[in-house]
Amino acid sequence: MAFTACFILGLVTYFTIPVSLLPDIAIPEITVQVTGQNTSARELENTVVKPIRQQLMQVSRLRDIQSETRDGSGIIRLSFDFGTNTNLAFIEVNEKIDAAMSFLPRETERPRVVKASATDIPVFYLNLTLKDQEKPQQFLQGTDTEAFLTLSQFAETVIKRRIEQLPEVAMVDITGLLNSQIEIIPDEKLLQIAGIRMEELENMLIANNIDFGSMIVREGYYQYNIKFSTLLRTVEDVEQIYIRKNDRIYQLRELAKITVAPVKETGFSLSQGKQAVTLAIIKQADENMDKMKVALKEVTDHFSTVYPDIEFHITRNQTELLDYTISNLKQNLSLGLLFIFIIAILFLGDVKSPLVIGISMFVSILISFLFFYLFQMSLNIITLSGLILASGMMIDSSIIVTENIAQYRHSGHSLEEACAKGTTEIITPMLSSTFTTIAVFVPLVFMSGIAGAIFYDQAFAVTVGLIVAYFTGIMLLPVLYKLVYSIPDIGSILHIRFNNPIKEHTLDRMYDQGIDFIFRHKWIGLSTIFIFIPVCVVLFYFIPVSRMPEIDQNERVVLIEWNENIHIQENRARINHLMEHIPSAVTDYTASIGQQQFLLNRDRELSSSEAELYFKTERTDQIPLLETAIRNWLHLNYPMAVFSFSPPENIFEKLFTTGEADLVAEIYSRNTTDAPEAEEVYELENILQAKTGIEPVGAAFDNQLNIMIDRQKLLLYNVSYEEVYRTLKTAFKENEVTTLRSYQQYVPITIGNEPGSVQQVIHQTLIQTIPDEEGKSYPVPLRSLVTVLPGEDLKTITAGKNGEYIPFSFFGVKNPEKTLSQIKAAVNEERIVNQSNKWDVAFSGSYFANKKC
């Protein structure tokens, strides 16, 4: 009865155990995200990122630290050894940042600290596109832009919230939204006639959008909550703002054109070539992926029926890899049990013994699932591989018990006596054998690093499987043996016996002859052993070492940096042109162009000249063809572009970083006072490629326009610095004054001018002087106050423990040691050619990480 109860409980818990790809392993990585709006990369690096990086280098158990700084944002990655308590490290990192805040500029926002977690990796991405953008129907009315604005609002307020209500979903991250803003374009002539300055217009908008709070007033037995609110909630509220100037009252709509327009786009999300809203679905840590997939399909099918104009498309589906891996392991386990049963029939000679062994093993595995549930272990590739390993050992114990019982029966004992004596005799030997096998796996629990984190689950699965199999073998198997062999042989297939001629004549004879040969020629056997031992030791050092075996994938992510100062629309046009030349084998592709809106984005932000493309092919052997086609197209059309290939983000990639470059040459400049020139870096890159024969992924440079304000002329013409800055922001539509609080939505209110080029803005814009004693101000041409100079600097400033460096990444390195020597020779050659001693070189990459394994 006890085994029956455990069997039923094991069967029930099997369907409730969480299923995941890998065990819940803490990723020893913490990311610090730094923001500096309207701050250049060089200024942000020197004033914010560098002081924080130096402070964080004191964090305990820190293995490596790396930072990447770009215009307006920076990211610092801290890597720790596996086994580090990331919760304590997270607290210590926050304490270090709090200590560093006093050394940073006063206006700097506190950096955001994000602890890496395997559960933060999206299970899949849900892309929402319009089926027909030219003829929207139902609730999608208007032009394409208006339709996509409506789709963005609908996705954020309805679909996102509905999916987050699913119990299997932790959160839904979203990107690709097209937001709206209220754009105010003043009529400069009318403002000049009315004598209203831009500063007064901004102050009036702010003054009419203030929430003064509330107060409580008592009256008799009652009290009332009185609120004072002048918040702007609609476009009409903005249009009806009154301005008093020179004893005359104006409405804002009389002085400016007020419209609802899309926010200036800084990024796109494309799916199958169409603009999309992308939702990243993140699973609850203890939920089953299969249940989540079914629940999400029901939701999307419902929305597809109700809103046929919206197309739902799932990409980067992590459940496919999980289903493929877990189903393969389950299939291997089932086939293993089947083959064990067939082989046992052939070698034991009857059907009853293998039947008893098969039933006992099946019961043992199901009871093992009960302990998985009790100890909160998940079904993953590690625990299932442990069960497969344990099942091979289970069969040994079961065969020993059945054979020992059979010997007692052949000695003349009754069936019941044979079961009792045969089992009692091997209780102690089987127990010692079980503990001996378990003792081999116990040290795996105490291993450090990623190996210890992973093999803990395997050791648990093997231990539980063997202990359950032991008690099943000494308690359940004798009972099953007695019941099965009590069945009469007449009229039953269980009485069929097999004679294995191969075992009786060939295997036995070969074994006897082999033993006789070894004992007749002892020196030959000993010499062979002594020869093979040193050979095997030597070969051991020539075996390639890697953290993970090479995994065949039919997915690839391409990161492209065009290395030109292009805007987001040009970036999108180039991506669309590239998509027209990809091979037909590609079944699915998406693109993230420019900045993305994900909240849990731990990676660096993409700039307007960058794009991340995702491709999926029918077969794994088509990925090299895809890479070759993209590489050739980029070299032909955009030779300045910098690009790299990597596998898509998943739990394997997070733990083992399989997409890391084989070698990374870190080029340090000895001259710390001047930034490296682009020509010098390009020359060094060409020398590295010529020496190694491998095209490295180098650094990208950013062409800039530096506007220099002549402060002497500001004093001469009586113009304030703030007025120049405000005028430039207004001219380039970057002047956000306040926010319209439209109940559940916050819509920014901006003041801008008609669009124009930089030269047009500089030469055609007028700036008002500071009012004199009579309150009069005069226009001054902007071109007389500023000077525009071209500049160039690294687009991404990379730094580590030793300071700033320029990374050159090498992929597909066949002979790392030879390549290292060639890179050093290339750096020395550059010193000789230019007669300078400017560069130092250090190395990193997967080659060195694998050597530590």
Helix content: 40-55%
- Form type: elongated
> Quick one: how many beta strands?
30
- CA radius of gyration is 36 Å
- Can you list the strand order of the major beta sheet? 4-1-3-2-28-29-21-30
Low-confidence stretches: 134-143
Structural class category: alpha+beta
Summed up, the helix count is 26
Estimated share of beta-strand residues: 15-25%
Q: How would a textbook summarize the main sheet?
A: 8 strands, antiparallel
**Mean of all residue-level pLDDT scores:** 81
If you had to describe this structure to a student in words, what would you say it looks like?
Helix 10 (318-348) runs antiparallel to helix 11. 47% of the residues lie in helices and 23% in strands. The protein contains 26 helices and 30 strands. The longest helix is centred in the middle third of the chain and has 37 residues, at 449-485. Strand 10 and strand 11 form a beta hairpin. Mean pLDDT is 81; it is low at 134-143. By secondary structure, it is of the alpha+beta class. It is elongated. The strands form eight sheets. It has an eight-stranded antiparallel sheet with strand order 4-1-3-2-28-29-21-30. Strands 14-13-18-19-17-20 form a six-stranded antiparallel sheet, covered by helices on one side. Strands 6-15-5-16 form a four-stranded antiparallel sheet, with helices on one face.
